[in-house]
Amino acid sequence: MGKKVSRRMQALLAKIEDRDYAPLDALALLKETATAKFPEAAEAHIRLGIDPKYSDQQLRTTVALPKGTGNEVRVAVIARGEKVTEATNAGADIVGSEELIDEIQKGMMDFDKLIATPDVMPQVAKLGKLLGPRGLMPSPKGGTVTFDLVSAISEFKAGKLEFRADRTGIVHVMFGKVTFAPDDLLINLKALQETIDRNRPSGAKGRYWRSMYVASTMGPSIRIDINALRDLKMNET
């Protein structure tokens, strides 16, 4: 049985044409179709011409959103010695060593991002089953295994996100809130596009960009003209 479409969604779907929208028009429409009773996220769903089951066609990286995410990011740090003090001074919300690993093992997950120094990773590894499914396991590719705690903490608090292509080659990324101005959403979306282009896997064959849709959390999908976004020069807008 097909899922029943609510009256609210039917009215929103009627506003969207089956065509590629210019990036700024799509983001204005995204704001217009975000009618839920809470501040929705702006999401991008991008289908790429990659098959992540091959190691040279995987995409996992980070993007620094210039206008931030609109979310307060709670950062936890696992470190040792003077790095504990450094993390506290840099504004981390939760800091600890072995005792923090024990707390997480017991189910404490009161954070959005976990950063670890390389020297504690052998101990952090045992948290893999807990952290992995939640996307919280520290990784060098994700910028969350580092001795440079000051930079890592400030970047993630300012709007740096980790993302990856799922097993079907689709990237799902939140790139702001619907309360942002369309111009600010566009700046973040452009940063995401440039990051995906810059990190094109070496094994990607044929057409890299297949489709890009944007949507609010509870809103309908709007198809974006990918070439128009890629050709856009932000300093000219």
UniProtKB/TrEMBL annotation:
This is Large ribosomal subunit protein uL1. One of its GO terms (cellular component) is large ribosomal subunit. HAMAP family: Ribosomal_uL1_B. Transmembrane segments: none annotated. One of its GO terms (biological process) is translation. Belongs to the universal ribosomal protein uL1 family. Keywords: Repressor, Ribonucleoprotein, Ribosomal protein, RNA-binding, rRNA-binding, Translation regulation, tRNA-binding. The gene is rplA. Part of the 50S ribosomal subunit. CDD domains: Ribosomal_L1. Gene3D superfamilies: 3.30.190.20, 3.40.50.790. SUPFAM superfamilies: Ribosomal protein L1. InterPro entries: Ribosom_uL1_bac-type, Ribosomal_uL1, Ribosomal_uL1-like, Ribosomal_uL1/biogenesis, Ribosomal_uL1_3-a/b-sand, Ribosomal_uL1_CS. It comes from Dulcicalothrix desertica PCC 7102. One of its GO terms (molecular function) is structural constituent of ribosome. The keyword Transcription does not apply. Pfam families: Ribosomal_L1. Protein L1 is also a translational repressor protein, it controls the translation of the L11 operon by binding to its mRNA.
